[in-house]
Input
Amino acid sequence: NAGVTQTPKFQVLKTGQSMTLQCAQDMNHEYMSWYRQDPGMGLRLIHYSVGAGITDQGEVPNGYNVSRSTTEDFPLRLLSAAPSQTSVYFCASSLSGQRSGNTIYFGEGSWLTVV
Amino acid sequence: TQLLEQSPQFLSIQEGENLTVYCNSSSVFSSLQWYRQEPGEGPVLLVTVVTGGEVKKLKRLTFQFGDARKDSSLHITAAQPGDTGLYLCAASTGTASKLTFGTGTRLQVTL
Output
Protein backbone atom coordinates (compact mmCIF):
# COMPACT_ATOMS: atom_id res chain seq x y z
CA ASN A 1 0.00 0.00 0.00
CA ALA A 2 1.97 2.97 -1.33
CA GLY A 3 -0.32 5.87 -0.30
CA VAL A 4 1.37 9.17 -1.18
CA THR A 5 4.81 8.82 -2.75
CA GLN A 6 7.23 11.72 -3.11
CA THR A 7 10.51 11.84 -5.00
CA PRO A 8 13.26 12.75 -4.55
CA LYS A 9 13.75 12.44 -0.79
CA PHE A 10 16.76 14.77 -0.79
CA GLN A 11 17.95 17.32 -3.32
CA VAL A 12 20.58 20.04 -3.41
CA LEU A 13 20.17 22.77 -6.02
CA LYS A 14 22.19 25.77 -7.05
CA THR A 15 20.51 29.16 -7.09
CA GLY A 16 18.73 29.65 -10.40
CA GLN A 17 18.34 25.99 -11.24
CA SER A 18 14.92 24.50 -11.87
CA MET A 19 13.59 21.17 -10.74
CA THR A 20 10.40 19.20 -10.25
CA LEU A 21 9.28 17.43 -7.09
CA GLN A 22 7.17 14.45 -7.98
CA CYS A 23 4.07 13.34 -6.08
CA ALA A 24 1.86 10.37 -6.81
CA GLN A 25 -1.05 8.79 -4.93
CA ASP A 26 -2.75 5.47 -5.59
CA MET A 27 -5.92 6.04 -3.55
CA ASN A 28 -7.98 7.70 -6.31
CA HIS A 29 -8.13 10.89 -4.26
CA GLU A 30 -9.58 14.01 -5.84
CA TYR A 31 -7.72 16.50 -3.68
CA MET A 32 -3.96 16.96 -3.68
CA SER A 33 -1.80 19.68 -2.24
CA TRP A 34 1.75 20.80 -1.61
CA TYR A 35 3.00 22.27 1.66
CA ARG A 36 6.36 23.53 2.79
CA GLN A 37 7.51 23.19 6.40
CA ASP A 38 9.98 25.61 7.90
CA PRO A 39 11.19 25.81 11.51
CA GLY A 40 8.77 27.71 13.72
CA MET A 41 6.26 28.26 10.91
CA GLY A 42 4.32 25.03 10.70
CA LEU A 43 3.14 23.83 7.31
CA ARG A 44 2.15 26.43 4.72
CA LEU A 45 0.03 25.64 1.69
CA ILE A 46 1.76 26.31 -1.65
CA HIS A 47 -0.72 25.03 -4.27
CA TYR A 48 -3.62 22.64 -4.30
CA SER A 49 -5.86 20.81 -6.73
CA VAL A 50 -9.45 19.61 -6.27
CA GLY A 51 -9.33 17.38 -9.33
CA ALA A 52 -7.59 16.67 -12.62
CA GLY A 53 -7.17 19.84 -14.65
CA ILE A 54 -7.93 22.14 -11.70
CA THR A 55 -5.29 23.89 -9.60
CA ASP A 56 -5.27 26.91 -7.33
CA GLN A 57 -2.86 28.93 -5.24
CA GLY A 58 -2.37 28.52 -1.55
CA GLU A 59 -0.72 30.81 0.97
CA VAL A 60 2.82 30.88 -0.51
CA PRO A 61 2.63 30.16 -4.27
CA ASN A 62 5.34 32.49 -5.58
CA GLY A 63 8.22 30.70 -7.30
CA TYR A 64 6.29 27.46 -7.76
CA ASN A 65 4.15 25.98 -10.52
CA VAL A 66 1.88 22.95 -10.49
CA SER A 67 -0.22 20.99 -12.93
CA ARG A 68 -2.71 18.15 -12.55
CA SER A 69 -2.99 16.24 -15.80
CA THR A 70 -4.03 12.99 -14.09
CA THR A 71 -5.80 12.13 -10.83
CA GLU A 72 -2.72 10.31 -9.58
CA ASP A 73 0.07 12.85 -10.13
CA PHE A 74 0.66 16.37 -8.85
CA PRO A 75 4.20 17.60 -9.59
CA LEU A 76 5.60 20.79 -8.05
CA ARG A 77 8.00 22.79 -10.20
CA LEU A 78 10.55 25.25 -8.90
CA LEU A 79 11.16 27.64 -11.75
CA SER A 80 14.38 29.33 -10.60
CA ALA A 81 15.46 28.09 -7.20
CA ALA A 82 16.33 30.60 -4.49
CA PRO A 83 17.88 30.03 -1.05
CA SER A 84 14.53 31.08 0.49
CA GLN A 85 13.05 27.91 -1.01
CA THR A 86 15.26 25.72 1.17
CA SER A 87 12.66 23.75 3.07
CA VAL A 88 10.97 20.42 3.57
CA TYR A 89 8.17 19.87 1.08
CA PHE A 90 5.17 17.65 1.74
CA CYS A 91 2.61 16.42 -0.74
CA ALA A 92 -0.80 15.46 0.61
CA SER A 93 -4.02 13.99 -0.69
CA SER A 94 -7.57 13.37 0.49
CA LEU A 95 -10.71 11.86 -0.94
CA SER A 96 -12.32 15.25 -1.47
CA GLY A 97 -11.28 18.84 -0.98
CA GLN A 98 -14.84 19.99 -0.72
CA ARG A 99 -15.59 18.72 2.75
CA SER A 100 -13.76 19.76 5.85
CA GLY A 101 -12.75 17.02 8.21
CA ASN A 102 -11.55 14.65 5.49
CA THR A 103 -8.54 12.54 6.37
CA ILE A 104 -5.49 14.01 4.68
CA TYR A 105 -2.62 11.66 3.91
CA PHE A 106 0.89 13.08 3.71
CA GLY A 107 3.94 11.83 1.89
CA GLU A 108 7.22 11.36 3.69
CA GLY A 109 8.64 14.69 2.57
CA SER A 110 11.32 16.01 0.23
CA TRP A 111 14.28 17.84 1.77
CA LEU A 112 15.43 20.59 -0.57
CA THR A 113 18.52 22.73 -0.06
CA VAL A 114 19.28 25.66 -2.38
CA VAL A 115 22.84 26.93 -2.21
CA THR B 1 -4.83 34.64 6.72
CA GLN B 2 -6.04 32.68 9.72
CA LEU B 3 -3.57 32.37 12.54
CA LEU B 4 -3.35 29.30 14.72
CA GLU B 5 -1.19 29.65 17.79
CA GLN B 6 -0.01 26.59 19.64
CA SER B 7 1.40 26.51 23.13
CA PRO B 8 3.75 25.54 24.47
CA GLN B 9 6.26 25.40 21.63
CA PHE B 10 8.44 22.87 23.43
CA LEU B 11 7.68 20.45 26.22
CA SER B 12 10.06 18.01 27.86
CA ILE B 13 8.54 15.73 30.47
CA GLN B 14 9.19 12.42 32.15
CA GLU B 15 7.32 9.23 31.49
CA GLY B 16 4.09 9.05 33.46
CA GLU B 17 3.42 12.78 33.59
CA ASN B 18 0.30 14.43 32.17
CA LEU B 19 0.36 17.33 29.72
CA THR B 20 -1.92 19.62 27.76
CA VAL B 21 -1.23 21.33 24.44
CA TYR B 22 -3.34 24.27 23.31
CA CYS B 23 -4.35 25.54 19.90
CA ASN B 24 -5.96 28.99 19.77
CA SER B 25 -7.26 31.41 17.17
CA SER B 26 -9.48 34.44 16.84
CA SER B 27 -11.27 32.79 13.90
CA VAL B 28 -14.18 30.38 13.97
CA PHE B 29 -13.48 27.05 12.29
CA SER B 30 -15.76 24.44 10.76
CA SER B 31 -13.39 21.68 11.83
CA LEU B 32 -10.08 21.18 13.54
CA GLN B 33 -7.61 18.35 13.23
CA TRP B 34 -4.66 17.20 15.32
CA TYR B 35 -1.63 15.54 13.74
CA ARG B 36 1.54 13.95 15.07
CA GLN B 37 4.73 14.11 13.07
CA GLU B 38 7.85 12.06 13.76
CA PRO B 39 11.32 13.00 12.47
CA GLY B 40 11.76 12.27 8.78
CA GLU B 41 8.09 11.58 8.19
CA GLY B 42 4.95 13.40 7.19
CA PRO B 43 2.19 14.37 9.66
CA VAL B 44 -0.28 11.63 10.56
CA LEU B 45 -3.86 12.48 11.43
CA LEU B 46 -4.87 11.70 15.04
CA VAL B 47 -8.38 13.12 15.20
CA THR B 48 -10.91 15.49 13.65
CA VAL B 49 -13.36 17.53 15.73
CA VAL B 50 -16.24 19.37 14.12
CA THR B 51 -18.79 20.28 16.81
CA GLY B 52 -18.30 23.02 19.40
CA GLY B 53 -17.68 21.45 22.81
CA GLU B 54 -16.89 18.06 21.27
CA VAL B 55 -14.58 15.75 23.21
CA LYS B 56 -12.88 12.77 21.60
CA LYS B 57 -10.65 10.19 23.22
CA LEU B 58 -7.95 8.11 21.58
CA LYS B 59 -6.49 5.81 24.23
CA ARG B 60 -4.53 8.16 26.54
CA LEU B 61 -5.17 11.21 24.34
CA THR B 62 -8.18 13.48 24.91
CA PHE B 63 -9.08 16.13 22.36
CA GLN B 64 -11.50 18.96 22.96
CA PHE B 65 -12.97 21.54 20.58
CA GLY B 66 -13.94 24.82 22.22
CA ASP B 67 -17.60 25.76 22.50
CA ALA B 68 -17.09 28.69 20.13
CA ARG B 69 -14.99 26.56 17.73
CA LYS B 70 -12.02 28.92 18.01
CA ASP B 71 -9.73 26.77 20.10
CA SER B 72 -8.82 23.22 20.93
CA SER B 73 -6.75 21.27 23.41
CA LEU B 74 -4.93 17.96 23.44
CA HIS B 75 -4.41 16.27 26.79
CA ILE B 76 -2.11 13.28 27.19
CA THR B 77 -2.41 11.17 30.31
CA ALA B 78 0.59 9.22 31.62
CA ALA B 79 2.88 10.15 28.74
CA GLN B 80 5.15 7.50 27.28
CA PRO B 81 8.37 7.81 25.23
CA GLY B 82 6.37 6.70 22.18
CA ASP B 83 4.38 9.94 22.45
CA THR B 84 7.49 11.92 21.52
CA GLY B 85 6.99 13.97 18.37
CA LEU B 86 5.72 17.21 16.87
CA TYR B 87 2.02 17.82 17.49
CA LEU B 88 0.25 20.03 14.97
CA CYS B 89 -3.25 21.43 14.97
CA ALA B 90 -4.84 22.33 11.66
CA ALA B 91 -8.15 23.99 10.92
CA SER B 92 -10.37 25.01 8.05
CA THR B 93 -13.24 27.42 7.70
CA GLY B 94 -15.04 25.38 5.09
CA THR B 95 -13.18 22.99 2.90
CA ALA B 96 -10.01 20.97 3.14
CA SER B 97 -8.68 23.15 0.32
CA LYS B 98 -7.69 25.88 2.77
CA LEU B 99 -6.26 24.02 5.73
CA THR B 100 -4.20 26.21 8.07
CA PHE B 101 -1.62 24.62 10.35
CA GLY B 102 -0.43 25.78 13.72
CA THR B 103 3.29 26.20 14.41
CA GLY B 104 3.47 22.98 16.37
CA THR B 105 4.38 21.72 19.83
CA ARG B 106 7.49 19.59 20.08
CA LEU B 107 7.06 17.01 22.84
CA GLN B 108 9.84 14.90 24.31
CA VAL B 109 9.06 12.20 26.82
CA THR B 110 12.01 10.69 28.65
CA LEU B 111 12.31 7.63 30.84
About this structure: Residues 65 and 77 of chain A are 5 Å apart (CA to CA). Chain A has a mean pLDDT of 92.
